[in-house]
Amino acid sequence: MKKIKNESALVKEALRVIMEDAEKREVAEFEPTDSAALKMEYCYRLLVHDKKVIPLANDQLGLPNYKRVLARWIMRELPKDHPLLK
Prior knowledge:
CATH superfamily: Uncharacterised protein PF16691 family
Largest sheet: none
Radius of gyration: 13 Å
Number of domains: 1
Number of strands: 0
Number of helices: 3
Shape: globular
CATH architecture: Up-down Bundle
Mean pLDDT: 90
Strand content: under 5%
Structural class: mainly alpha
């Protein structure tokens, strides 16, 4: 698979957007002590639940694939002229 440019920054932005939305909808409350891995897994599962992404196969579940899914999702959500997409 081709590496995504700015993947870590895209994942951070995706986590920010998803976590903000989840707290606004009152479906989750994140603590400062929650690990990044836990936040990524929750955000991935929330996107799957909301039918915004296709679920990964059971043998593909894991942090590297969660990161890739989150990065690809936020790439579709950001405006075309966003600095992270350049």
